[in-house]
Amino acid sequence: MARFFVTGATGFLGGELVKQLIGRGHQVVALVRSLDRATLLSAMGVELHTGDITNRESLRTPMRSADGVFHVAAWYKLGVRDSSGIAERVNVDGTRYVLDMARELAIQRVVYTSTVSVFGDTYGKLVNESYSAHGPFLTEYDRSKWRAHYDVAVPLMQAGLPLIIVMPGAIYGPGDTSAVHRTLVRLLRGRLLMTPKGVTFCWGYVEDIARGLRQAMDAGRVGESYLLTGPAHTFQDVFATAARIVGRRPPPLHPPRFMMRAAASLAALLEKWDFRAPYPAEVLRLMAGTTWIATSAKAEGELGFTARPLDEGLRHTIEHELRQLGMS
User: Fold this and answer.
1) I need a surface site. Which of 16, 197, 213, 270 has the fewest CB within 10 A?
2) DSSP secondary-structure letter at 220?
3) For the whole model, what pTM was predicted?
4) Assigned CATH topology for domain 3-174+203-230+293-307
5) pLDDT tens, N- to C-terminus, the chain (328 residues)
6) Where are the domains of the chain?
7) How many CB atoms sit inside 10 A of residue 313's CB?
């Protein structure tokens, strides 16, 4: 039985990771900003410490006796103006504090959760871990996670930190609170009329991605990065599949890339003058034919990672959402 320190334990992916670690008999120590938000973790027997990854010293005591560290916490928002610099503080500085503390305390193994979006738009290409890009960045999340990956994690790894980097694609499943979840709810309520044309992501079910983090801790090679990506599907495919599962017609409108780009430019202009556009420019840019397509062949071969088909994962997700909405 090992003892693991986990950041982001109250979040979507971190919460699933904690559940799996506890289920396998491990001890879990979690850093949480509020004990009120961590009642489920407490009920599972997680050792809770209040603190924040942007406060370096709050990491010392809970991390000190850990056999391994999972750094999952991140700031993830789309279409939100980051005037306070929170993305930089959490995603960049917070990652630096967590990884640097792990080095100071001589933690044996560290798994850092990066993202495939540090690659930016892959322009329809299937890429692997050797791919790199330096912008342009579609969102503030992408930019700050790129900085955390290449300006913080990689240099510390090269300096001797026993670090493994994992890079999930789009994550979905029960408990999601992202824009994907909100779009799915609109479809289930019969209110989704449009999905953009050409937008393609790799879709990983949350249980599979959390298992991939565990596999990286167990079998990942220190100093290596692993893409944890599910099957690639367009937004049209995803929501047409969801519609078929619940017996609805798929969304009928599919605006092309040029139309989404024009809408993004108009929204950016409105935002410049402090007008609120119906959809934020950042979201519209992302929906203008963006592709994040990457292969998890390395993780499959070295870690034993597998990702379930979209249809199977969506069925589980939809069953959960229908219960939550009182529609089952």
Assistant:
1) 270
2) P
3) 0.95
4) Rossmann fold (3.40.50)
5) 999 999 999 999 999 999 999 999 999 999 999 999 999 999 999 999 999 999 999 999 999 999 999 999 999 987 776 656 999 999 999 999 999 999 999 999 999 999 999 999 999 999 999 999 888 888 899 999 999 999 999 999 999 999 999 999 999 999 998 888 999 999 999 999 999 999 999 999 999 999 999 999 999 999 999 999 999 999 999 999 999 999 999 999 999 889 988 988 988 888 888 777 677 888 888 888 899 999 999 999 999 999 999 999 999 999 999 999 998 7
6) 3-174+203-230+293-307
7) 23
